[in-house]
Amino acid sequence: MILDETIIALATPSGAGAIAVIRLSGPKAIEMAATHFKSVSGKNLSEQKTHTIHLGHIVDNNRIIDEVLVSIFKNPNSYTGEDVIEISCHGSLYIQQEIIQLFLKKGCKMANAGEFTLRAFLNGKLDLSQAEAVADLIASENEASHQIAMQQMRGGFSNEIAMLREELLNFASLIELELDFSEEDVEFADRSQFKILLERIEQVLKRLIDSFAVGNVIKNGIPVAIVGEPNVGKSTLLNALLNEERAIVSEIAGTTRDTVEDEITIGGMGFRFIDTAGIRETKDVVESIGIKKTFEKIEQAQVVIYLFDGSTAKAKLDDVAIELAKIRNKYPQKPLITIANKIDVLTDTELAEINKTIPDVLLLSAKTGFGVEQLTNKLLTMINSGALRNNETIVTNTRHYDALLKALEEILKVRHGLESGLSGDLMAIDIRQALYYFGEITGQVSNDELLGNIFANFCIGK
Amino acid sequence: MSLFQDTYDVIVVGAGHAGSEAAAAAANMGCSTLLITMNLQNIAQMSCNPAMGGIAKGQIVREIDALGGYSGIVSDTSAIQFKMLNKSKGPAMWSPRVQSDRMRFAEDWRLLLEKTPNLDFYQEMVSALLVDKDKVVGVRTSLGIEIKAKSVVLTNGTFLNGLIHIGDKNFGGGRAGEKAATGITEQLVDFGFDSGRMKTGTPPRVDGRSLDYSKMEEQPGDEHPAKFSFLDITKPLTHQRSCHMTYTSPEVHDLLREGFDRSPMFNGRIQSLGPRYCPSIEDKINRFADKERHQIFVEPEGWNTIEVYVNGFSTSLPEDVQFKALRSVKGFERVKFFRAGYAIEYDYFPPTQLMHTLETKLISGLYFAGQINGTTGYEEAASQGLMAGINAALKVKEREPFILKRNEAYIGVLIDDLITKGTEEPYRMFTSRAEYRTLLRQDNADFRLTPKGYELGLASEKRLRRMEKKLANSEAFVQFFKDTSVKPEEINPILEEKDSSTMNQSDKMFKIFSRPNISFDDMVKIPSVKDYVVAHQLDDEVIEQTEIQVKYSGYIEKEKNNADKLNRLEDIKIPKNFDYSKIKSMSYEAREKLSKIRPITVSQASRISGVSPNDVSVLLVYMGR
């Protein structure tokens, strides 16, 4: 237990809700929050009083992640007795993860189960009887998290980590062998082999780290943004897909001003449909905020559905083409499905005109359900065809993600050391750290294990 | 009138490396001390190889010296060859080692002990301890003499029920030509101690005149030998003796295999575990069958003696097989044996029965040090002896115990490993056992430990002043490099010579010195550096220290930070009679192990195998700090 580290975790139950609370605790909590919080009134967070609440945005460089409320609790008057920041953000899983990851990257540590309470106890905020209750809690949470970890390790993840660790351990043993047994007649693996090994480890680590995004998608659903001008029937389409009246459906253009998300399982795969306002040029202030949000959502989505009203499109087909080009230019890699809605009222000539002007258009009527099945098939094909193909090994646990990030950092240091001809004893410092982070995922690594490995594989001793 | 009337403060049983250091420490700390051994002619025998130090072990000898022990001094005065091993690696790996004159080593030790105040000697076998309730009050000898003492340090080495094996023959003995000791194991087991058996071995000694050195590779000592002791009473060697190296061959291996059916290692006669890192030659060819040759180091036993130690050929095969096989080794064709190699089995007491002071948990005032604790090696034994002697003396004087932490000394790592994890095979020190080896260097053992040794009353004031001067001079020199700039025209020729990128403008010397391929030899070419060295009369030790501080400060700092984290857990003490059974949220295995070993701190608890990080978290909660 290192109390000078700043820890972070979601304080509200996991899953999507109206709002979520993310809690940071530790000596750097306020400082860290201040660097990523832009107050609407331009106040500097680190100069604010304790027990105050501030409206603003969480930003990563210049990218706004979410509009949030930040509460400040200065030590010792907080739950843990340390400096505590609570960020109330919007409740989507995506936003929660984005904010937590942002702070993890800045050196925050993912809190262990019950760690806030543990700190509260260690700082004298709880008495012994309360603490004993906490101890039981910790134990039970560990058991639960162990099960979760085991579940997540199915499908190759466990093997992958174990293999990596094994390789690192071999590497570490070879280095230790050179150090403790330099007098002996043992052949040391050559450095170019080490380099190849390190590069391979680095690749696997990077892939696993990248897979976290994919893992999140699988866990939380593949985000699909539905984009189009107001009143083209986005909400109706969503309802057709959802088979329930969740989004606001009305005949007034621009009703869907905020984004609404819902999940639907198609062919065993979770999709998260994000209903957005269109991207039509507008002077309406509220709506232009919606348009900005739309682009943010397109960015986050793995698939974009562009929807237009086939029945009123006649004069506007050129505008549709322009808007489609806009999206394609901005996000050339994003799979894009173009749909002409309300085709139940169209004549064959009109349909032919649409087909001619807009290539690869999917004709659909959200009202009658015509084409909806074709759409779901298309979504599934996109996954199977590789546009969304998942990595075989996927990291879904934020704690694992945290450990992998730190391991990668150490591995990069080892590689740098290797390239600059650093002595093995100094390289070993970083190798041991990397092994330590792997140990956080798979269990403990001890020096005895290194020595055991050496004796098992090499003839040592005069 | 009986031989002994007064009560000694400390009685040390056994006069090997552990016993000699223990006796010297207790006596030098002002305790009336008695050293009892079965044969006073054999004080500080090197029963195995004639060498002190080596990787991780050399660091320990430096630590013993820094605290005020004698091993470093004796190693210097009896050395016939010096090597700084691992010089091509980082400074934490630099490990001093000497080849020793075996007879001189023992003689110098005995003379040093004879000059030590408060120290008496007596030759006899101790056959029992005198115990009053849970407290030791003296010893009884084989003649039935009772000698009273406030504390007793047992350093029995391989003598407790020692059993020597050569081929299918075996006989009782503590060392070749010496009797085994009996009685103590049985008595301690009666008191409730666990005991076990361990095994070790030694190679044949041969007549150097019968060897053909022209067929071997010569292995000379360092061109510029250093030494162990931080004191200036010893000097580096001016001339040295070489060792030689040769190899076994498939033919030698075949000849050895012929004796396998008569090998006590393979026919089941020896059951106990020997050290994996010090295997017998038969073990090596058996386990690594595809290896066509193994190294043999031919080490002289002294300046003048013709006796030679055949390092790498430890064996308990029948003497005729040993002889026949060795005669097939290059250079050994006409070899004559002084004595055959042998294996020895002996009693040890799993060291988890000890506290950090090396005092037993069961009997107050009783200390164990050396092979009785399951360790191997002169250095490991000597350092335990020193610590046991110090703590026995402190207890008698009713002072606080002396415990070294894992980030303070290899000695701290050694003792903490022993008492926390125990050991199944003879325990030898390796640098990889230390989490913070960058801090535990041979060059800074005096900085780490001499102030502590002085406070104990063991290290002399002269020793402390020397260390302080070295520290002040090296710190000032480091500051000089931080403060002083160098111009491009001065430094660039030096950088070009080293293929290091040149400079466009003046910069601090520290930055350039920090570059991996730039050494002090390059820096001293700068006139202002040269002038500084001359003006301040800096010696090699200060220069070496400065170079290490400049070049490795980043790594040293990193490990210091990690060590500080460790220390926080180290500060969380566990109450003496803490009831682990009440912690239901802890695994059964962890509860059982913790109840048995009874760690003093949460940090120590975390190092016990079977105690998971989760168990530690739970424990932390219960400790409430």
From TrEMBL, chain A:
UniProt-annotated binding residues for K(+): N231, S250, I252, T255
Keywords per UniProt: Cytoplasm, GTP-binding, Hydrolase, Magnesium, Metal-binding, Nucleotide-binding, Potassium, tRNA processing
Cofactor(s) this protein cannot do without: K(+)
Keyword Lipoprotein: no
CDD domains per UniProt: trmE (cd04164), TrmE_N (cd14858)
An MF annotation (GO) of this entry: GTPase activity
Catalytic activity, EC: 3.6.-.-
Cofactor: record remark: Binds 1 potassium ion per subunit.
Top-rank EC class of the record's enzyme: hydrolase
GO biological process terms on file: tRNA methylation; tRNA wobble uridine modification
PROSITE patterns in the cross-refs: G_TRME
Entries under InterPro entries matching the protein: AAA+_ATPase, G_TrmE, GTP-bd, GTP-bd_TrmE_N, GTPase_MnmE, MnmE_dom2, MnmE_helical, P-loop_NTPase
Superkingdom of the source species: Bacteria
Binding site for (6S)-5-formyl-5,6,7,8-tetrahydrofolate: R23, E86, K125, K462
Subcellular location, principal: cytoplasm
Binding residues annotated for GTP, in chain numbering: 231-236, 250-256, 275-278
Domain TrmE-type G as annotated: residue spans: 221-384
Signal peptide stretch: none
Record note on quaternary structure: Homodimer. Heterotetramer of two MnmE and two MnmG subunits.
Family that this chain belongs to: Belongs to the TRAFAC class TrmE-Era-EngA-EngB-Septin-like GTPase superfamily. TrmE GTPase family.
Protein name: tRNA modification GTPase MnmE
Organism of provenance: Paucihalobacter ruber
Organism classification: Bacteria, Pseudomonadati, Bacteroidota, Flavobacteriia, Flavobacteriales
GN (gene name): mnmE
From TrEMBL, chain B:
SMART domains: GIDA_assoc_3
Molecular function terms from GO: flavin adenine dinucleotide binding
Positions with a binding annotation for FAD: G14, A15, G16, H17, A18, G19
Binding site for NAD(+): 274-288
Annotated SUPFAM superfamilies: FAD/NAD(P)-binding domain (SSF51905)
Subcellular localization, as worded in the UniProt entry: Cytoplasm
Pfam families: GIDA (PF01134), GIDA_C_1st (PF21680), SAM_GIDA_C (PF13932)
Cofactor: FAD
Recorded superkingdom: Bacteria
UniProt KW keywords: Cytoplasm, FAD, Flavoprotein, NAD, tRNA processing
Chain ranges of the tRNA uridine 5-carboxymethylaminomethyl modification enzyme C-terminal subdomain domain: 550-621
Stored InterPro entries: FAD/NAD-bd_sf, GIDA_C_N, MnmG, MnmG-rel, MnmG-rel_CS, MnmG_C, MnmG_C_subdom, MnmG_C_subdom_sf
Primary location recorded for the protein, binned into one broad class: cytoplasm
Region (Disordered): 199-225
Biased composition (Basic and acidic residues): 206-225
GO cellular component, one term: cytosol
Gene Ontology BP annotations: tRNA methylation; tRNA wobble uridine modification
Gene3D superfamilies: FAD/NAD(P)-binding domain, GidA associated domain, C-terminal subdomain, tRNA uridine 5-carboxymethylaminomethyl modification enzyme MnmG/GidA
Function: NAD-binding protein involved in the addition of a carboxymethylaminomethyl (cmnm) group at the wobble position (U34) of certain tRNAs, forming tRNA-cmnm(5)s(2)U34.
PANTHER family according to UniProt: GLUCOSE INHIBITED DIVISION PROTEIN A, PROTEIN MTO1 HOMOLOG, MITOCHONDRIAL
UniProt family annotation: Belongs to the MnmG family.
Name by which UniProt lists this protein: tRNA uridine 5-carboxymethylaminomethyl modification enzyme MnmG
Species this chain originates from: Paucihalobacter ruber
Taxon lineage: Bacteria, Pseudomonadati, Bacteroidota, Flavobacteriia, Flavobacteriales
